[in-house]
Each structure stands twice: as structure tokens, then as C-alpha cells.
């Protein structure tokens, strides 16, 4: 890794470490990705019932700042359908993820389900 790319990786980690709410994450995405891409992921479909419900549920998530706090090692890994995953977070299959990552669905960690508008094939 070159000095410049190491510095950029460091800056990226610092930026991500500052996210303390869903609104912070949304604001960061709004600044980082092209407007058309942000709008695609921000938009719901149909009457937006699912998007509104997701917003309600995410508003119940509280982020706790952990400044100057010593935390013991925690293992938040779990098993899903017999496969060990590092954290209890699963991304539903979403189409057009090629606009979010150059490796498409595989690059953002989507399981090998194939949405109707997938930008890559599983496997």
C-alpha cells in the first residue's frame, strides 16, 4: 500500500468512526456517492410503506459513543442457515448493486440470491 492509499484508508476509517446515527450514515452517503445512486438507494417503491417502516425501525437503533472506554473483547458472530457470519447483519438481495460496488452483489456482501436486476451472477 502506498503512503497516499494508506492515508486515504486512515481517513476513511476516521470518517466511518464518526457515524453515531442512521442520519450520520445517510449524510455521509449523500456526500460520497453520485446523486443518482443515492436517490436510487434512498427511494422506496410503490407507496413507500416498506421504506417508511424501515425508517421507523432504524430510528429505534441507538448508537453509543465509546470514547475513552475500555471494552472487553466481544464475539458478535452468529450462525445463519448453518454458516458462521461475523456479525448478525444480513443484507437482503437488492438489484443494481453494481452502482454501489465494482464487484456488484458479491462486493457488498449480499448472499448469493439473485435479484431480478442483478449486476453479477452468483458464484
UniProtKB/TrEMBL annotation:
A Pfam family the protein falls into: FMN_dh
Cofactor(s) listed in the protein's UniProt record: FMN
Coiled coil regions, renumbered to chain: none
Molecular function in Gene Ontology: oxidoreductase activity
Protein keywords: Flavoprotein, FMN, Oxidoreductase
Domain FMN hydroxy acid dehydrogenase: 14-123
Entry superkingdom: Bacteria
KW Cell wall biogenesis/degradation (keyword) present: no
Keyword Oxidoreductase: yes
Matching InterPro entries: Aldolase_TIM, FMN-dep_DH, FMN_HAD
PROSITE patterns registered for this protein in UniProt: FMN_HYDROXY_ACID_DH_2
Protein name per its UniProtKB record: L-lactate dehydrogenase (Cytochrome)/(S)-2-hydroxy-acid oxidase/(S)-mandelate dehydrogenase
Native species: Pseudonocardia ammonioxydans
Amino acid at each position: 500500500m502506498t503512503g497516499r492509499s494508506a492515508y486515504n484508508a486512515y481517513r476513511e476509517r476516521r470518517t466511518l468512526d464518526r457515524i453515531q446515527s442512521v442520519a450520520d450514515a445517510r449524510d455521509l452517503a449523500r456526500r460520497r456517492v453520485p446523486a443518482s445512486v443515492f436517490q436510487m438507494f434512498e427511494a422506496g417503491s410503490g407507496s413507500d410503506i416498506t421504506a417508511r417502516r424501515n425508517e421507523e425501525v432504524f430510528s429505534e437503533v441507538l448508537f453509543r459513543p465509546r470514547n475513552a472506554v475500555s471494552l472487553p473483547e466481544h464475539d458478535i458472530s452468529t450462525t445463519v442457515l448453518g454458516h458462521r457470519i461475523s456479525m448478525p447483519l444480513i443484507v437482503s438481495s437488492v438489484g443494481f448493486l453494481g452502482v454501489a460496488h465494482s464487484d456488484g452483489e458479491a462486493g457488498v456482501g449480499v448472499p448469493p440470491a439473485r435479484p431480478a436486476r442483478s449486476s453479477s451472477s452468483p458464484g
